[in-house]
Amino acid sequence: MTTQTASAAKHLPAPQSAPPPSAPPAATPVHDGADRSAPERGKTSIAEVVVVKVAGTAAREVHGVHDMGGGISRTIGVVRDRVPVGRPHVGRGVKVEVGERQAAIDLDLVVEYGVPITDVARDVRENVVEAVERITGLEVVEVNVAVNDVHLPDDDRETSADARVE
User: Fold this and answer.
1) pTM to 2 decimal places
2) With 80 as the cut, is the pLDDT of residue 157 above it?
3) For 118-127, how does the pLDDT look when each residue is reduced to its tens digit (9 = 90+)?
4) Measured at the alpha carbon of residue 140, what is the angle toward residues 137 and 145, in degrees to the nearest 5?
5) Which of 151, 60, 65, 59 is nearest to 113 (CA)?
6) Residue scoring higher pLDDT (16 or 102)
7) Distance separating alpha carbons of residues 122 and 126, to the nearest angstrom
8) For residue 129, which of 6, 31, 117, 140 is within the disulfide window of CB 3.0 to 4.6 Å?
9) Where does the pLDDT of residue 14 fall: very low under 50, low under 70, confident under 90, or very high at 90 and above?
10) CA-based nearest residue to 108, from 126, 120, 118, 94
11) Contact predicate 60/91, CB 8 Å
């Protein structure tokens, strides 16, 4: 019987083995930005008003700067500043041009009497460049300073003698 079993086994089809497991599918790359550096993940734009406010604030911080702006803008500014809900306009006397990576700034200043104008202009330039570049990341290519007036100590006194009615 063993011989018959052996011969019968020869006629049976060989057991089929399972196909070899296939390798897991290759992971498809995910493009969620993880493979790019931060500057390549989007665009940042800086509005002109941002540069105006930063430059105006930085210029006013310098010793010797009394006010900013030309005659008419200062006059309007004085009225605006006296309104109870009004607040000083930090952009008065500031004009800017802003590109994608650079900024150019023009400032109109009123300096205090007795302070060397060239020193004030230099200090304003340095302070404005440092503040704008640090805060906005823009390269400041130029800061033009125009001194339109000198504030005299007598300018602060209100003369009641000139008033016709009290």
Assistant:
1) 0.66
2) no
3) 999 999 999 9
4) 140
5) 151
6) 102
7) 6
8) 140
9) low
10) 94
11) no
